[in-house]
TrEMBL record:
Keywords: ATP-binding, Isoprene biosynthesis, Kinase, Nucleotide-binding, Transferase. The keyword Glycoprotein does not apply. The active site is at residues 12, 164. SUPFAM superfamilies: GHMP Kinase, C-terminal domain (SSF55060), Ribosomal protein S5 domain 2-like (SSF54211). Residues 85-172 form the GHMP kinase N-terminal domain. It comes from Rothia amarae. ATP binds at residues 116-126. Catalyzes the phosphorylation of the position 2 hydroxy group of 4-diphosphocytidyl-2C-methyl-D-erythritol. This is 4-diphosphocytidyl-2-C-methyl-D-erythritol kinase. One of its GO terms (biological process) is isopentenyl diphosphate biosynthetic process, methylerythritol 4-phosphate pathway. It comes from the Bacteria. Pathway: Isoprenoid biosynthesis; isopentenyl diphosphate biosynthesis via DXP pathway; isopentenyl diphosphate from 1-deoxy-D-xylulose 5-phosphate: step 3/6. PANTHER family: 4-DIPHOSPHOCYTIDYL-2-C-METHYL-D-ERYTHRITOL KINASE, CHLOROPLASTIC (PTHR43527).
């Protein structure tokens, strides 16, 4: 029977994202507080029909992306199915590290997407992470190599693929320094409930480098302030770990939510301000997810999250209630 290996990796939000000055390599130093969300990308590796790596792609049935595709707001053909695809690049990184070349393998990658594309939720990074994990296991199960690469080795290979890829491999909640790739996991007691959010994708994408470039432009002319410091506030980490009453804990977390990319994202897409201003029972805070344009609503309960999701859908908006961090293991 032919071997097939599927792995999932989560989308993310940044509960805190401070950005420093651009470096010579075009990247910015950041202080990020990442959390996984319960919207998963899935990559399945199976035997290819010819030498090399082939790819196919589909949309997860119960996902905001499925609704976006049905309404014409998203076209799956916009995701490149070539060497630029992050799943391909993740697979290749593992093959290389095993001392093989692409001609030595015959693999097919099927990518099942659930996370909005170019939405500031790290969907492409999750595909890279899931492909790395799946190819790592597949090569051993098919007898191509004897030993899997360690988790640490995968993390090292992940960083050059993209600033968010190491986090996508790890999931949970982590502080990310450097360009976001130097991770320190934040361990929470099992008794602590996940946060409930409603993610509202836009019917368009925003390019991450364009949003960083708008921040640089605006800072140079005084439109946006410089960062207050490249550190995730200790008070935010304490609030996350607190075993206080749920509402008190969520309100305390909300006090520290910050994103230096929010103003530039809103400058590039002014309609986001309207979404941020949406009022509904149970909303504690609203913020731009990473480089946007997805808007995240932090809610007071799972029930409120489902009510807001339903209310927004009735108005023809895309919306999905998620938990952060994701409790689904991957
Ligand atoms: C902003 C964040 C927040 O988590 O993600 P998104 O919200 O877009 O998903 C990340 O920093 C994005 O991570 P990722 O999407 O993996 O970035 P990469 O592919 O490595 O970089 C794309 C481009 O973004 C810019 N970039 C990225 C990270 C960083 N610390 N400084 C940067 O200036 C660079 O212009 C780079 O060429
Ligand atoms: N597997 C992939 N899924 C989505 N986008 C991908 C993938 N591989 C490469 N890309 C490219 O990366 C861009 C941004 O990807 P994505 O991770 O969805 O957004 P963001 O960086 O905002 O989180 C896309 O516009 C697409 O051109």
């Amino acid at each position: 029977m032919s071997v097939q290996v599927s792995k999932t990796a989560p989308g993310k939000i940044n509960l805190f994202f401070a950005v420093g000055d651009v470096q010579e390599n075009g990247y910015h130093p950041v202080a990020s507080l990442y959390s996984s969300v319960s919207l998963l990308e899935k990559v399945t590796v199976s035997e290819g029909i010819s030498q090399g790596i082939s790819q196919s792609i589909s949309i997860a049935v119960e996902s905001p992306l499925a609704e976006m595709a049905a309404s014409g707001a998203f076209d799956i053909a916009s995701v490149p199915l070539d060497e630029k695809n992050l799943a391909y690049r993740g697979a290749l990184a593992v093959i290389d590290a095993q001392g093989l070349s692409v001609e030595d393998v015959s693999l097919h990658l099927h990518i099942e997407k659930a996370v909005p594309v170019a939405g500031g939720m790290g969907g492409g990074s999750a595909d890279a992470a899931a492909a790395m994990a799946a190819v790592n296991e597949y090569l051993v199960r098919t007898g191509v190599v004897a030993t899997e690469l360690s988790g640490e080795h995968l993390l090292e290979l992940a960083a050059p693929l993209g600033a968010d890829v190491p986090f996508a491999l790890q999931g949970g909640i982590s502080v990310g320094l450097g360009v976001g790739d130097q991770l320190t996991p934040v361990e929470l007691s099992e008794a602590i409930q996940p946060l409930h959010l409603v993610m509202v994708p836009a019917s368009f994408g925003l390019s991450t480098p364009h949003v960083f470039a708008e921040l640089d432009r605006g800072r140079a002319v005084g439109d946006y302030p410089s960062t207050n410091g490249l550190e995730v506030p200790e008070a935010l980490l304490e609030a996350l770990r607190a075993q206080s009453a749920p509402i008190a804990r969520i309100c305390e977390i909300a006090r520290y939510i910050e994103n230096d990319l929010a103003a530039p994202a809103c400058a590039l897409a002014p309609e986001l301000k309207k979404t941020l201003a949406i009022q509904h029972e149970g909303i504690i805070s609203s913020f731009v997810s990473g480089s946007g344009p997805t808007i995240a609503f932090l809610m007071d309960s799972a029930e409120s999250a489902h009510q807001l999701e339903a209310a927004l859908k009735r108005k023809g908006r895309f919306a999905v209630a998620v938990e952060a961090p994701s409790r689904i293991s991957f």
